Amino acid sequence: MPDWSYHGIFKPVLSKLPAYISREFIHRGMSTIASLPLGPHLIHFLGREECSPHLNKQIKGMKFTNPVGLSGKIDPLLTGTSAFVHLGFGFIEIGPVTLQASSESCYPDADHKEQRIQFSDPLESIGLERTLEKLRKIRKKQPFIIRLSGTPEELSIMMQQLDVFADGYIVEADELHSTIHSDKPIFISNPTLELLYTLNVEDISGIIVEKNEFNTLLSTVRSYRKAIPAISIITTGEIREPSQALSLLSEGADLLLLSDGYVFSGPGLTKRINEALLDDLNDQLPPQKGWQSYWCFGLFIFIGGLLALLFSLTSVTLPYDEHYLGMQRESIAGFNDRIVKFMSHDRMTLAGTMISGGIVYMQLAFHGVRRGLLWAKQSIDIAAITGFLGIFLFIGYGYFDWLHLLFWLILLPSYVYGWIHTREIKGTPSSRNRRNHKLWLQSLYGQLAFVVLGFSFVLGGLVISYYGVTSVFVPTDLLYLCMPPEILHEFNQNLIPVIAHDRAGFGSALVSVGLLVLTLSLWGFQQGNKWVWWTLLIGGLPAFISGIYIHFAIGYTSFLHLLPAYFAIGLFLIGLVKTYSFFHKDRDNDER
């Protein structure tokens, strides 16, 4: 559940419900999606949670992809853990686990005004047996550190049974006992410095620092690090924005556990922290080989769109069209002058879509692939491969022109060369965002608008393609033409296949551009990415202008027919307005 859906759709509704009900609704829903055959891929597609190797850490033999973990307080019943393993966390805390399920716990209470959650005391626990049942069903992707609570004898029993799932343990300081042993690291929760001084530091795996106020948490970490420099420190609580996470890490924390801040800031907090950490590293890589080929691929599409626009404004039909029809444009216009206008309407909308797609391809290549960003390459690949497959739609109604095949053959080598030379690309994005400011929150609503716009383009393209290979016309088309398909077929049996060819081509192009807009909106929203905003603006204008202009130019102004375009323009403008300040804002100030 990315931040744009969490804040834009779910949170306003779920915040009205009791904390327990909203928590379980979200967790069970996410776990249901994760359990589907393609569920993990859908989660990754929407959230994009891969981590840069530069953020990898190793502590006490445990390998972490990044230093951000999830506190067990968020999912004490383990109803959402099968989904959380796919959300980019470097590690996950399980528990607290007690030998028997807790009967004294109460449900958490969320204060949305103060942005605090009052967790039950003692914390909720489903007991050892239920925990084992749940863990057996989870496909583990990162270290699990299991928090235990009980007597020394109970702790030993639980460690023996949980050892196959655990990469480490957390034990309360007042429950620590000399009889407790494990081959796995054991972290002590909230120990005093006096207790640590009485222990052999080399035998201590690390400590957990838990505080309810950020400045107290920060100063406590600083004190521990100064007193015992070699000790591993994990903090939990009071992290609501990336700047706080960066401050804790700079003061000596090794790992971070997100708790109530994760609930109020949104599921994207993990990703935002990792992007901020990467931004701090400021690692500049040489330009990625092969990006120029991807850029040329976009340039060829752009030029092809300009040529298509020129033809749609002048002759409309090309020589091979007239050869296939067995008549010239004038003969068609003499029968019904709206037929040629209708054909120009399809061809100009295709031209505008191609020009827009070419611009987006070039921008992704130059600003994304050139910098080694994996998401930019995959955005190009998804849209390009879809576009190449769309050539088969052209023959779905019996008409295939060789100009499209020639264009396809020109594009293919450029794309293949780019794909081959960028296969090893692995870069992940960084972000200048550090705060949960209004600009960030506003941008989420803008991002939601662009995501819906991308989905709408894909859906619209599929519908148009379907009509292109089946009935060809929608009711408003026939009203504009003032004649049914039977008369068109009687006039020239090859006329409808030519129109179907145009429809299918436009539908295919719209699907590809929709995928570009969708993936750019899902994966490219990092603060300071001015190029993303300008790509969406400049890339959107040709498609919208050509699409609206040609309808009014030929008198095809049916409100019902143009309603999807008006809806898309509304989303486009909302997205641009809501995201402008976020994309043009420089790095936020840290709390360090």
Overall form = elongated
- Our count of helices gives 23
Percent of residues in beta strands? 5-15%
Radius of gyration: 29 Å
The percent of residues in helical segments reads: 55-70%
Give a quick account of the main beta sheet: strands, pairing sense, barrel closure: 8 strands, parallel, barrel
Structural class: alpha/beta
- Rounded to the nearest angstrom, the distance between the terminal CA atoms is 30 Å
Oligomeric form: single chain
List the uncertain runs.
none
The average pLDDT score comes to 89
Q: How many β-strand runs?
A: 12
Strand order of the largest sheet: 3-4-7-8-9-10-11-12
Layout of helices and strands, plus pairs?
Elements: H1 3-14, H2 19-35, H3 39-47, E1 57-59, E2 62-64, E3 68-70, H4 81-84, E4 91-97, E5 109-111, E6 116-118, H5 127-136, E7 144-148, H6 152-162, E8 168-172, E9 186-189, H7 193-198, E10 206-210, H8 214-227, E11 233-236, H9 242-251, E12 255-258, H10 260-265, H11 269-281, H12 291-313, H13 319-325, H14 329-335, H15 337-368, H16 374-389, H17 402-421, H18 438-469, H19 475-481, H20 485-491, H21 495-523, H22 530-554, H23 559-583
Parallel strand pairs: 3-4, 3-12, 4-7, 7-8, 8-9, 9-10, 10-11, 11-12
Antiparallel strand pairs: 1-2, 5-6
